[in-house]
Amino acid sequence: MSLMPTPRRDIAWIGRANALVRYGVLIGVGLIMLYPLFWMVAASFKPNHEIFGSVSLWPRDPTMDGVVKGWRTGTEYSFATYLLNSFAFIIPKVVLTVVSSVLVAYGFARFRMPGKQLWFALMVATILLPKSVLLIPQYLMFREFGWLDTYLPLYIPCAFATDGFFVFMVVQFLRGIPPDMEEAAVIDGCNSLQVLWHVVVPVIMPAIISVALFQFMWSLNDFLYPLIYLSSVGKYPVALALKMAIDVTEATAWNEVLAMSTIALLPSLIVFFLAQKYFVEGITSGSVKG
Amino acid sequence: MYDNRVSGYLYIAPFLIGLATFTLFPFLSSFLLSFSDYQLQDPVQQARFLGLGNYIQMASDDTFYGSLGVTFLYVFITVPLKLAFALFIAFVLNFKLRGIGFFRTAYYVPSILGGSVAIAVLWRYVFAGDGLINQVLVWAGGEPLNWLGEPAYALFTIVLLRLWQFGSAMVVFLAGLQNIPTDLYEAATIDGAGKARIFFTITLPLLTPVIFFNFIMQIVQAFQEFNGPYIITGGGPLKSTYLLPLMIYEEAFKYFNVGYAAALSWVLFLIIALFTIIAFASAKYWVFYGNEREDRE
After folding, report:
1. Phi/psi of residue A62, each to 5°?
2. pLDDT (tens digit, 0 to 9) for every residue of chain B, 297 residues total?
3. Taking CA atoms, which of A135, A251, B182, B283 is between 20 and 30 Å from A2?
4. Among partner residues B12, B121, B216, which is closest to A107 by beta-carbon distance?
């Protein structure tokens, strides 16, 4: 750098140009990224011929046709059935995941015991283990149990903290909290379960919410497991119903299928916008704090 | 904190049971199945030992080689592009600008939604013959392309879908960037370091733990890509998007060759394990941990 100080006016000018370039990049990338989503929502309210006909977002002849027919679906069930089916296994899945992850994380973070390092390492390793290597034997096992075409294979494993990622997330969060309050509670005569319930759970609430939200979103997106375990259409969740819809109505009714997709994304979008700070905290807790 | 090993084990008992039942047992079973001729419709007892039969079959299976090649191509294109793009946008965002929160949200939304079937369905229409992309191409005076029907382009549509989801990697990078103490930058500026110098000697080294984390997560994820090829392209055209997870699924649940599928899944596992091991082993040469952590458990 030169010894002459840069005049203040130049600094301000450079700062403004810098900000301008940054905003330009951000807006440009943002538009390109979000355009397909806007296009999908707009197409839900367009007649079919108009979807192919123009790049414009705003429908020239707005119609509810796509939404209504999409909601009815081409099957004997309406979209409401598929939404309810999704929630029928997602809600137990979220609850079981939260309970088991918190218990296990508490054990890992607050107890000294032999072999802990090994188990913890194995838990982290399961995060990296590809699901497809477990898929076939798990399927055979659940077939032996007589659980095919039920929701049990989709949520029962969650009662056993099988998603190591979530345990890891809660452990990381717990490690960042000094155990002073818990020690005080022990001196006051609480046992470890009472400490967990009355002291730890309120403190780690943000982590618990992050776990619940991520599990909710991921389960809503889950496709492969419902695909192999569920065979009757009446039990299909949204993900399978959508796949079925494109197989049946593909060539003709774009507005119906895109309307269904739009509706299918609404639960995720609503939850995300209500609680976005927990997503950002959750995704960064495992990587940066650790 | 507590020294009671019995209660400790009681708390982690659910995990230990789950690990044994839903992870280790299936993991070893698929290894055993990979040496058998087991067919999905038969009772498991009827499986016969084949020795290395499935692996020998694989060695002369052109579909497998094709699938393997496409899988590597997909991973090697997607992961570096996604990380580079996520890092670039994180840099642009890491600045005192008004409305940063808004942009961060806008970029993060696709990564939350992108794994869904709904978005995969949308992607089909975006890249269809008279879909959005071709409409824009024609409107701009170009020629429409046969995105989903041309082997050279089909994989590219799936790569783009996953690039579109760069948000979660970006959020992690951004948090990493904001963790770098500003006094380091100030000290470097006073010492006369230029922008490029600061980037390569301060920002990049301090970011390596986050890069490492994102790299591992993205590699593991990319090797398991299933929804994209299954829903958007169906593995075609001419198997140009027939990624290994899709081949494993079809061998097991469409052709019922469970033994062969199990062998394929072990190959996929070994590939991912190899990459993870290399990454962890190499970490000590390039991942920079500022000060040694006191409690590593």
Report:
1. -60, 140
2. 777 778 889 999 999 999 999 999 999 999 999 999 988 888 877 788 888 999 999 999 999 999 999 999 999 999 999 999 999 999 888 877 777 778 888 888 898 898 899 999 999 888 988 888 888 888 888 888 888 888 889 999 999 999 999 988 998 898 888 888 888 888 888 888 888 888 888 888 889 989 998 999 999 999 999 999 999 998 889 899 999 999 999 999 999 999 999 999 999 999 999 999 999 999 888 888 765 444 443
3. B182
4. B12
Chain B 206-265, CB below 8 Å of chain A: which residues? 209-210, 213-214, 216, 220, 223-224, 226-227, 230-231, 244-245, 248-249, 252-253, 258, 261-262, 265
- Considering only CB atoms, A223 lies closest to which of B107, B117, B252, namely B117
In a domain, B101, yes or no: yes
| Contact by Cβ (8 Å): B38, B213 | no
Q: Given CB atoms, is B19 within the 8 Å cutoff of chain A?
A: yes
Cβ-defined contact of A112 to B15 (cutoff 8 Å): no
pTM: 0.90
How many CB pairs lie under 8 A apart between chains A and B?
282
Q: What is the pLDDT of residue B245?
A: 96
Boundaries of domain holding B76 = 25-119+154-286
Q: What ipTM goes with this model?
A: 0.88
At B225, list the tokens.
């890509």
Cα(B258)–Cα(A228) distance, rounded to whole angstroms? 13
Residue linked to tokens 């943000």: A206
Among the residue ranges A59-68, A196-205, B135-144, the one predicted with the least confidence is A59-68
Q: Per the structure, how many domains does chain B have?
A: 1
pLDDT, position A153 = 96
Pick the residue of B16, B85, B116, B277 with the most A CBs within 10 A to test the interface with A by mutation: B116
Q: Which residues of B touch A243 (CB under 8 A)?
A: 117, 121, 231
Q: Answer whether residue B248 is part of any domain.
A: yes
Does residue A270 sit at the B interface (CB-CB below 8 Å)?
no
Closest CA to B213 of B238, B167, B176, B260: B176
The whole-angstrom separation of Cα B242 and Cα B77 is: 16
CATH code for position B69: 1.10.3720.10
- Assess A242–B contact: CB distance below 8 Å, yes or no: yes
- Quick check: A78 and A88 in contact, CB under 8 A? no
Which of A113, A144, A283 comes nearest B168 by C-beta? Answer: A283
Instruction: Using CB atoms, pick whichever of B121, B132, B226 lies closest to residue A257.
Output: B121
Q: Which of A65, A130, A230 is nearest to B30 (CA)?
A: A130
Please write the tens of the pLDDT for every residue from A222-280: 999 999 999 999 999 999 999 888 887 655 688 888 899 999 999 999 988 888 777 77
CATH class of A70-289: mainly alpha
Domains of chain A, by residue range, sit at 8-66, 70-289
Question: Would you place residue A289 in the very low, low, confident or very high pLDDT band (cuts 50, 70, 90)?
Answer: very low
Q: If 0-12 CB within 10 Å is exposed, 13-18 middle and 19+ buried, where does residue A58 land? A: exposed
Cα–Cα distance, A199 to A186 (Å, whole number)? 10
Distance separating alpha carbons of residues A247 and B231, to the nearest angstrom:
10
